[in-house]
Amino acid sequence: MVASSTKRRKTSADTESLTKDSAHVHSKMDKRRYDCMMNQRRYRERKKNKTQNTEWYVDELRRETRRLEEHAALLKSNVLMRNIQAGTYRCRSVSTYMSLFQNGLARVPGHLLNQQIDIMASLLAENVLLNGSVGAQGLRQQWEAFNEFFPQLTMKVLDMQSLGDDHAVVVVDAVVDLLFTQHTIACLFPHVAHRSDLVDKLVDRTISCPLRMSFVFGDAQVESMEVDLNFVLGLRPYLGSLDNTMLVVHGSDDDHARITAQGMIAVEAILSTQVGTHELVPTPIKVDMVKQPLLVPLKSDAVHTLRYMTDSLPLPQLSAKERAEQRRLECVLNQRRYRARKKEQYEKTVADMANTKHEIRRLQELATILQNKHITRHVQAGHYRHDAIASYVAMFQHGLALKDDAMFDKQMQVLSGVMSQNLLFNGEVGIPSLVAQWRAGGMLFNRVEMRTLELQVHGADHNVVAVTGTMQAAIGRQTIAALFPHVFKREDVVQKLIASGLFCELRMSFLFDDDRVSIMDSEINFMSGLYHALRNIEDMSFVAHAEGGSKMLSDGTILYNDVAPVDSFVEPIPASVASELMDDCKPKDEPEASKTKASVDFILA
């Protein structure tokens, strides 16, 4: 027990073994620590790369979302402007129709009647629906009936507006003044002709009746038309009571009313007075138009017919067996003759078919040759026209070179080489009108840049070149003063316009006549550019339409005959500041200067 409890001394070998064990343990720990450190470093790098990729992807999504939102806003503004322009065009068409028919259908053939017939043919569709009846002929019959029953008619328009999201419905409120006569009472209201107390109140009086008309447009023409002429409201002030008015307009239960519920003249009244177009009257058949039948044959024909009838009869001296044999032989001969005729017809048909096929093959080959020549000629012309317009667009990419004489000379050479001297540009004749537009744009805008997105050649003859692109123009205060000076009343709108500029959709079409452009149409969507810059319909309407509107039309055309000079530009003083300075700075010995507008001839000089 004593020996076991005695402590054993540590030797040098034990010390070395412990040192080796501790070093081994330390090396393992260091390796694990290093591995852990590297794993953490790799993990942090992966997290960092993943975070950077996520941030880059989010930024890319934001840019794409912003681009799509701008594109959607541009499309929305284009649709809105297109619908507004369509509504304006439709109201203008209906206004033309109402002005031509303000005194009814022309009673005397002449220029006015031709205009009325043309407006009905162009405005109304062929199968227009008029108060439930199909066809534009019913409208003309109504006008002719009103001419027959009312010697004097005057229509005054009170209000006109377009309705619907696409402005496809135009509603017109008007008043129609009708002169009543004895003929009117006898034809339209015969059931009250015996009531002298009512007739005396209407005869030789001009009755004003409210009228409401609605025009429902399809693509370009009116597909449905509703007319409501209120005779009740017009006659009641003259007849006194509603019962007498209803009796005159609609009659009693036993009477057949000749005025419909919508105020139109019924068909019975039109037929009773034979009012309508001349096509309704049938054309009488003349007696000499019917040919007399040929009853007596010629003498030679009679002899031939009689001989045939007698030869075909059986001879009385032949027996039954002989007659049967004769009929059999006649049948055989007839069959032979029939087969010979059919064979001859078949051979002739085969020969005709062969000749026809040969002629068709010859004509097809000739047509192919001519078509190839025609297509080759037009394709070559299309390539030349494509290159000509491409050079024009590239040359005028940054507008007219007003400060570079060499570039200006090149542009003039391109215009004289591509455009005809009698060029029709947006309704104006001559190359100077195109140059005037470019010069006005270069003087009014600080910078102009035109980009081409698509350039195509159309038409069977490859004579139409269409260009689609964008036009970006930088706006300064001199631009605002020249085109829309009223905007200076809204400094926030001025800052938006200067900051954003105009980014508009551009469409151009060039119609070639031989090798020169004879007609050029250019449309810059100015309204969409305003909406893109302002992002507000009310601000856009203020710039475009307030106080006389902009000097730049919705299609981008600059009214250069009424543009303020750029060189004499002075920014207007705000109204709040001007009112304070009037008392202190008002000149006493000098007369008040009057502002005048110079034409673009001053700018172009």
Give a quick summary of the entry.
With 605 residues, the protein is an alpha+beta fold. 54% of the residues lie in helices and 18% in strands. It is built from 19 helices and twelve strands.
Write the layout of secondary structure elements.
Layout: H1 2-5, H2 12-100, H3 111-123, E1 124-130, E2 133-134, H4 137-149, E3 153-163, E4 169-180, H5 182-188, H6 196-202, E5 205-217, E6 222-229, H7 231-239, H8 242-250, H9 267-272, H10 299-312, H11 320-395, H12 405-418, E7 419-425, E8 428-429, H13 431-444, E9 447-458, E10 464-474, H14 477-483, H15 491-500, E11 502-513, E12 516-524, H16 526-534, H17 537-545, H18 575-585, H19 600-604
Helix pairs in contact: 2-3, 2-16, 7-8, 11-12, 15-16, 16-17
Biased composition (Basic residues): 1-10
Coiled coil: 346-373
Region (Disordered): 1-30
Describe the protein.
It comes from Achlya hypogyna (Oomycete). Keywords: Coiled coil. The protein is α+β, with helices and mostly antiparallel strands and 605 residues long. Among the domains are: 86-265, Nuclear Transport Factor 2, Chain: A (Roll), CATH 3.10.450.50; 383-562, Nuclear Transport Factor 2, Chain: A. Helices cover 54% and strands 18% of the residues. It has helices spanning 2-5, 12-100, 111-123, 137-149, 182-188, 196-202, 231-239, 242-250, 267-272, 299-312, 320-395, 405-418, 431-444, 477-483, 491-500, 526-534, 537-545, 575-585, 600-604, and strands spanning 124-130, 133-134, 153-163, 169-180, 205-217, 222-229, 419-425, 428-429, 447-458, 464-474, 502-513, 516-524. The chain has a six-stranded mixed beta sheet. Strands 8-7-12-11-10-9 form a six-stranded mixed beta sheet, sandwiched between helices. Helix 2 (12-100) crosses helix 16 (526-534). The longest helix has 89 residues, at 12-100. The radius of gyration is 46 Å and the shape is extended. Mean pLDDT is 77; it is low at 1-7, 274-315 and 562-605.
